[in-house]
Design a protein that fits this description.
heterodimer, A: 393 residues, four-stranded antiparallel beta sheet, two-stranded antiparallel sheet, 8 strands, globular, B: D-Maltodextrin-Binding Protein, domain 2, five-stranded mixed beta sheet, three-stranded parallel beta sheet, transmembrane helix (chain A), amino-acid transport (chain A), membrane (chain A)
Amino acid sequence: MKEHKKTVKGVAFYNNPKIRAIIYQILALAAIFLFTYYVLHNMFINIEKRGINTGFDFLGNEAGFGIISTLIPYTESDTYGRVFIIGILNTLLVSGIGIFFSTIIGLLVGIGRLSKNFMISKLCLVYVETFRNIPILLQILFWYNVVLAALPGPRQSMSYMDAFFLNNRGLYIPRPILESGFMSVIIAFLIAIAAVVYLAKWAKKKHDETGEEFPVFWTSLVILIASPVLVYFVSGSPATLEYAQLKGFNFVGGWTFTPELLALSFALSIYPATYIAEAVRAGIEAVPKGQKEAANSLGLKNHIILRKVVLPQALRVIIPPVINQYLNLMKNSSLATAIGYPELVTLFAGTALNQVGQAIEIILMTMAVYLTISILISIVMNFINAKIQIKER
Amino acid sequence: MKLLKTLSLSIAALAIASTVSSADTLDTTIKNGKLSCGLNTGLPGFAAPDSDGVWKGIDVDVCRAVAAAVLGDATKVKYAHLNAKERFTALQSGEIDVLARNTTWTATRDTSLGLNFTGVNYYDGQGFLVSKKLGVKSAKELDGATFCIQAGTTTELNLTDYFKSHNMKYTPITYDTSAQTIQGFEEGRCDALTSDSSQLYALRTQLKNPSSAIVLPEIISKEPLGPVVRQGDDKWFNIVKWTEIAMLNAEDLGVNSKNVDEMLKSTNPNIQRLLGVTGDIGKNLGLDPKWAYNIIKQVGNYGESFERNVGQGSPLKIERGLNALWKNGGLQYGAPIR
């Protein structure tokens, strides 16, 4: 029997464990690359053989179909490239609306569930359990059909002060039309923001030095609203409102929120909010009781304890699961295809795909968009997460 | 590194060697014992389940006829129910072998998607369905109206063309399926619904109160609807193409599902060739000599299929119109079987 040798002298290089590990990894990587290459190569040969067009030339062709709501100007003679951009913008719009409202609702309900008030906590519980357990597609369809069924036709629309109209074609609100002098209002607003930032710094310094509290929030609010409004009137009201008017079949002018957008925003706010609420609750409960008791013994008021002691610590627990909810929300916006809201999947991976027929290019582009947005959301949220982590010095 | 080189070379060789051989659809269908056929998700007259849950319609008959010709049994079909957006990909990828889903034959689809249209089983045209309440009598009064449309159809493009050429504006709401489209119309989301006129009649029957809506007189486009197959399999293309021609010729020659057995004894040489009594059309197609007999016996001729599904024998009650035989003033003309 030979003795087991620990030294590697005289052993062939492929028996050296270190080199071996590297070789295996290179082989694994090469196999993955070759497999991908093989699949793609095969696919393109097959496509060509079957006489299917390939390439991205179609992006420059005229789309030729109408789109109900766009954030940038669009006519039927615009290109598929523009349709792609419109799809992305509409996806970002509903996702943005969803993220904004689901965060607010989630935060309130999450805090509400821990409330000592029996009614509030139970109502929040019912909300979470109800909307968390119904598939979001059903919720989208439900809101859409509820909205449509409840609202009257354009000619019988509900109106408020002849400026706001609600009917089954959407919610119509006046649209401000800005004139040249409006620039001064924007500048006033920017200056107000700068002033508020300075004020916050000054108040913090004063608080650090003297312990005196200054009502930063309310003062800031007044500055932010009052100064642009003041400048607006001083410069002679350089904006007019365009009202929606009933013309022929429908209302024309103003800003329109279509039922599709309303239903989708509703579903994308209410459903993810349940998960965010649970994350918030978990985060708050994760803050040691002693922290609250200590703050209490200092004589701090409840809302100040929540804002300055509990939430900053809870956020460290809350943010990671919330990132996931934002990502899910963004991806769930593609369910809009069920109600015809023109976001990326409906518009580009749906209508455009079927008009052009180039499935591979279009699906790849669509996937790339979702991947990019997801990564961006992750990066931003992880940055925020890193910011609020405990800094150990 | 030698190992790696050998590995990469062999995989590259594999990649080149195994470029998919053009699959023989006829052989695979016979081997599977079932025809996989793509249909609409539900459109009365073309493809919709009856009260027993059996799918019926003029498009279903295309599937059944091809199955009868190829497998000798019209029931040996596996149906795939596709929406407008899925249909071409399903055919391109080989999920289905025939697409019989009221699909308009256009130049782009025929030339750039790797597909072949085998013929026209229904000559259609795009029209408008509007609520009676609006008091609209003509499509020219629809300026500024909102339309319910099915996404990704030629309908969408025709509507744009029509409104552009008449200098009018419209707002589109595009839904995924025709069921959603009619629901949107019924709930008042749109003023009008636009689609192929045959579909309008079919969709109107699905309204709670069908008499509350009317179909406007204008037809704004040509919509030749027909079965589609993949490019590059000429044998299969021929089979699907001649299945429909056989049904047309059967009507032309007065052969139907009831008299087809007697007709086997007919002395008319055209009928003899059609039913495989003489000649070798079946053999040339790679099928049983009785291929056309099986179609007619089990599915019927074109006229029977039309009347049963969309014509007077159906709730739709659509006139033959353009779909009458050539000798009756229509466009349906079966190339001679000889």
